[in-house]
């Protein structure tokens, strides 16, 4: 049987979510922070870029036609990270995750054999994360998407233990996709906020999960890291050295950091065939999944071609192209 081609990094834009937060206290401040982090030149390019891609982000028929052109059979669709809104109060945050989960599920329901979905949880209100995950699963979604941190909290924060416990018990997928880099204005030119910021945030978030022992306590957690996990997988030797050389670095996790890469999943979106081959070497060919960042300009219009450029052995190519993801998605969560 031919293995379907599965793209695990694809986004949907939800106008309902933005309508919900429009005019609320805190939105202007959040947008001002985003503007400072990205800089005016980046914002001037990003606005028209998103508008040009609105049909692919909102219209299932256009999405499916583009998938056909790309040779993609199935997408794992997650909300645009711009919908996180980790500044909202508890009442609004609950309304937001419900709206986002329901709208994403409705989008995917137009082609349930080809579109599977992920919802959102409000990381800035840890007590709501468990109910938000339950709601997502109740909508038929496969899990949730999270950022690399929330204001004042990293993913190692004990407040998230109930979320990891619930995600592990249910088999829900957690898709780690950063939005915004805490290096702030240092990255406000040349789109460094994305080109450097995203892989940095991935590396920091994954390091928190590893070094704090979250992955020791929750070995069955199904976590997919966007952007190939950022800088961490290709520079994991430095983490191993610190773990073995320093008592403070090795105090929180039981094993060398590199050993945890095989417990995580990574998308293939690294924009370099040499880096992709190294990612497979570091994490294992069974832990890498095809990802395109559909349909944004920092993604790839030809995810299968980008994978083919790495010249992997045929078995590894097929595993990354869709075999690994098919197994992961078919297993599915248990609400």
Automatic annotation (TrEMBL):
Residue ranges of every copy of the Amidohydrolase-related domain listed in the record: 6-329
InterPro entries the UniProt entry points to: ACMSD (IPR032465), Amidohydro-rel (IPR006680), Metal_Hydrolase (IPR032466)
Organism of this sequence: Streptomyces luomodiensis
Pfam families xrefs: Amidohydro_2
Lineage: Bacteria, Bacillati, Actinomycetota, Actinomycetes, Kitasatosporales
Name of this protein: Amidohydrolase family protein
Keywords (A to Z) from UniProt: Lyase
């Amino acid at each position: 049987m031919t293995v379907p081609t599965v793209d695990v990094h694809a986004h949907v834009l939800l106008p309902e979510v933005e309508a919900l937060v429009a005019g609320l206290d805190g939105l202007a401040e959040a947008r001002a922070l985003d503007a400072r982090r990205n800089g005016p030149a980046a914002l001037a390019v990003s606005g028209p870029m998103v508008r040009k891609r609105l049909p692919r982000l909102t219209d299932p028929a256009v999405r499916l036609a583009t998938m056909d052109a790309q040779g993609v059979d199935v997408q794992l669709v997650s909300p645009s990270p711009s919908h996180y809104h980790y500044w909202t109060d508890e009442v609004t945050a609950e309304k937001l995750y419900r709206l986002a989960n329901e709208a994403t599920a409705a989008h995917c329901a137009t082609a349930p054999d080809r579109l599977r979905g992920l919802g959102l949880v409000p990381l800035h209100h840890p007590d709501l994360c468990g109910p938000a995950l339950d709601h997502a699963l109740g909508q038929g979604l496969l899990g949730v998407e999270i950022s690399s941190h929330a204001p004042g909290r990293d993913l190692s924060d004990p407040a998230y233990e109930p979320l990891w416990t619930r995600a592990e018990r249910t088999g829900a997928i957690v898709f780690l996709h950063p939005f915004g880099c805490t290096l702030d204005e240092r990255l406000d030119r040349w789109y460094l906020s994305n080109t450097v910021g995203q892989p940095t945030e991935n590396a920091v978030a994954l390091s928190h999960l590893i070094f704090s022992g979250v992955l020791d306590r929750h070995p069955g957690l199904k976590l997919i890291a966007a952007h190939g996990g950022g800088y961490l997988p290709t520079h994991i030797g430095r983490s191993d050295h610190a773990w073995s050389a320093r008592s403070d670095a090795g105090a929180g996790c039981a094993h060398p950091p590199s050993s945890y890469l095989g417990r995580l999943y990574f998308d293939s979106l690294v924009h370099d065939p040499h880096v992709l081959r190294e990612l497979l070497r570091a994490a294992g060919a069974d832990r890498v999944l095809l990802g395109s960042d559909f349909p944004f300009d920092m993604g790839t219009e030809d995810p299968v071609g980008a994978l083919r450029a790495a010249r992997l052995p045929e078995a590894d190519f097929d595993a990354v192209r869709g075999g690994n993801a098919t197994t992961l998605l078919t297993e599915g969560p248990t609400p």
